[in-house]
Specification:
By secondary structure, the protein is α+β, with helices and mostly antiparallel strands. The protein has helices at residues 3-19, 30-33, 110-130, 142-158, and strands spanning 58-59, 63-66, 72-75, 78-81, 84-93, 96-104. Strands 1, 2, 3, 4, 5 and 6 form a 6-stranded antiparallel beta sheet that branches. Strand 5 (84-93) and strand 6 form a beta hairpin. Helix 3 (110-130) packs across helix 4 (142-158).
Length: 177
């Protein structure tokens, strides 16, 4: 008899905890995933273009810009895959990668958009922390990961950035067609 109030109280407390639980929201939209790590920013380079044919592995739509603070911004080549192109813009300042943003990622269908929005912040953080385009592929996002790294390497080549460990990412995405 003495345990009944304790059991009822525990049941009410447990039920209210379960009802008060809020699951995480859906994947972060791509626009919100491209945040800057550094407070210093430079004028953004604008690049446009896409794949120029079904057999094309990349389009050379890229651009560079510099600011008076010494920051260099470049937009990598658009790397074409069967799920759509990927293109990345990078800002390098004082010999460090300070900003990486996806200009365009795979979006051929809803599933591709979902995968890209999940993988983009992971790839961005990895590039910023490793200071190289040779980032690990995100599980379940192989096409996005490989094309992201290839476009990032293309942009880093434009600003003559070399990783401290000498690592580079492959810019050959022909196997992704």
């Amino acid at each position: 008899m003495r345990r009944a109030p304790l059991v009822i109280s525990a049941t009410v407390l447990g039920t209210s905890a379960v009802l008060g639980f809020h699951a995480h929201s859906a994947a972060v939209p791509l626009a919100k995933a491209t945040t800057s790590v550094a407070a210093a920013s430079s004028p953004a380079a604008s690049g446009s273009g896409g794949a120029s044919g079904a057999g094309s592995t990349s389009a050379s739509a890229s651009s560079r810009s510099s600011s008076s603070s010494g920051a260099k911004t470049a937009t990598g080549a658009a790397m074409s895959t069967r799920y759509g192109p990927a293109q990345v813009r990078v800002t390098v300042s004082a010999g460090k990668i300070v900003k990486v943003e996806a200009v365009e990622l795979q979006n051929a269908d809803r599933k591709s958009q979902e995968i890209s929005s999940y993988a983009a912040p992971i790839l961005q953080q990895s590039a910023l922390s490793k200071q190289t385009a040779a980032v690990d592929a995100v599980s379940g996002a192989t096409y996005t990961s490989l094309s992201y790294a290839a476009s990032l390497q293309s942009a880093l080549d434009q600003v003559a950035f070399k990783a401290r460990d000498g690592s580079t990412a492959s810019t050959d995405v022909s196997q992704l067609q």
